[in-house]
Amino acid sequence: MGMYDELTLENLLSPESAAIARKIGTEKIAPVGLDALESDALRDFADFWNKARDGMPLPCVTRLDPVQIPKHLSQAILINVEHDPLAFQFRLVGDGPVQAYGFNTAGMDVMDLEVGGVPVGKMMHEVYSWIAAQRKIVAMKGPNAALADGYKRQEMVYLPFSDGGSRIVRILGAAVYYR
After folding, report:
1. Is this prediction's pTM over 0.90?
2. Are 141 and 29 in contact (CB under 8 A)?
3. What pLDDT, on a 0 to 100 scale, did the predictor assign at position 1?
4. CA distance 3 to 8
């Protein structure tokens, strides 16, 4: 039994956000252990994060050096984390996520996000809040009906970076999409 057994977006989220996940077809995406991922690229991101930690519980955002993962940057999503109130903004979005979703969210506040006319921002805010609260690598995978261009499922890693203390200020995400 893994630490995330029986945990999916549907039962991780508030009832309102779980209904949004069901409506867009992402409710079965679930947190998994890194060993459950198929993608070597996502494991490379996890290795990058672990090296950036340099023995600390969390890596400092000053250690976020994309030059160290150049062959995978097209899969990356960089999320800015603001506090008081908690908010998330897409800073950079690689070509992989843009192609898989059919649009670019760079520069957008997460709360403004819509997929297929469905306002999914609240749901994504809850997901990113949960990820930030974990204070460690979070891997997820599962079917995603919100994907475009024949993609059916995805795998993701989310890597939190701190301000040098305890506050999460960036989340580096990476995703691989499968047809």
Report:
1. yes
2. yes
3. 41
4. 12
